[in-house]
Amino acid sequence: MNKRIYQYALCACLATGAAACSTQKALVLPERITVPVTSDNNSDTLSLTGFEQVFQDPHLRSLIDSALRNNYDLLSASQQVSAAQARLMMAKNAWLPSVNLALAAGVDHYADYTLNGVGNYDTNLSPNISKDQRIPGTTPEYFAGIRSSWEIDLWGKLKSQRQASYARFLASTQGRRLLITQVVAGITGLYYELMAMDNELIIIHRNIKLQEAAVATVNIQKAGGRATELAVQQFTAQLLSTQALEYGVRQEITALENQINALSGRLPQPTKRSTVQDSAALPPIVKGGIPAQLLLQRPDVQRAELELTAAKADVKAARAAFLPAITITPYAGYNAFKANLLFQSPASLAWGVLGNMTTPIFNQKQLKAQYNISKTSAYTAFYNYQQAIVNGYQEVATALNKVDNQQQAFTLKSKEVGVLKEAVATANILFTTGYANYLEVITAQKNVLEAELALVSTRRNVYQGMVSLYRSLGGN
């Protein structure tokens, strides 16, 4: 009967162990998105002749260098990279045995009706032991030596954790690279915006002088009886309106300088920049399709892909947690129940080793929950990776079209400004000779001011398109 009970118990233990050793299914993700590469000439290259020259302004480069040194977000990102590197170091050394120097002291008092109490009493009566070997009634214990523990990575759990840490370390470096690209693009965009405001200010000053001359002319004509007070009022109102524009532009300049200072990690101060004449040329024309290789090298795409790799490794580690773990715990050192006998070699030398295999049984639900969490995180990382590719594709496509369209619009706007300037000269001549009224002169002056400001805006959009292209290509 007892034999049958033992057989049943053994079968139950084997069944429980088999259930505990079962693991979850391997992770299977959906198919990845196929990146369409479009181009007018069916090429997979992007013609960037002269692209590097766009950012060669010495004052701009100085601002960028200052921002890369002092931007607080970048400094914080550097610390995050260091933290990820430290976690990687921990994961790399997780497979090594832990070896600790141990100094331990304790005391036990065994009751008379216990195994140790009876054994110690009987041992002390034996004639085969010396005086130093007699066990005290209240028994101290001293140990000085080395204790170790080593988990054998039989199923690759520690290896998967190391792979996940390495992928997250690389992802943190890509995150910092992404932030660098954003800082450089932000500084560059604000810089060209600032130069556009300078250009608007020059245009406003030039038009103010022209309108002041027109006011003086109409006052002379009024004195000669050739113009009315209404004409003087209209010309004066136009002059005041243009003068008011100057202060709005100055406020924009102050706001832009403060934004640049904030990105550069410094207190408000004037921003050194080139004059409008020094940067009158437009950036070179950019033509070509969307390069898939550059698109996949964007830091946000790279980071998303590395996060996906880390999530996959987490799933592998979670699956391995269902399997038995083998741990070896050796020790060696001096061991005695009297302090003065502790270092008497070889009598006090002691060593031992224990092999331990543990299999999860009652915490299967916790392990399964952790596996489901890791699996969900992997799907989330996969969808984030897919979305990063989609975002990158549309950003590059938008930036390319913006540069092309704005460059063509600039050409037409330049011609428009030339025609309107001639119209102003014609209107002034006709007005002084009596063939045009003052409203026609005012309209011509207003149109040329608006056209010149629109030309500045178009030129600024060309540069902003180049900055957007730089950002969308990940700084490449």
From TrEMBL:
Pfam families: OEP. Keywords: Lipoprotein, Membrane, Palmitate, Signal, Transmembrane, Transmembrane beta strand. It is found in: Cell membrane. Coiled coil: none annotated. It comes from the Bacteria. The keyword Transmembrane applies. It is a lipid-anchor. Residues 1-20 form the signal peptide. Belongs to the outer membrane factor (OMF) (TC 1.B.17) family. This is Efflux transporter outer membrane subunit.
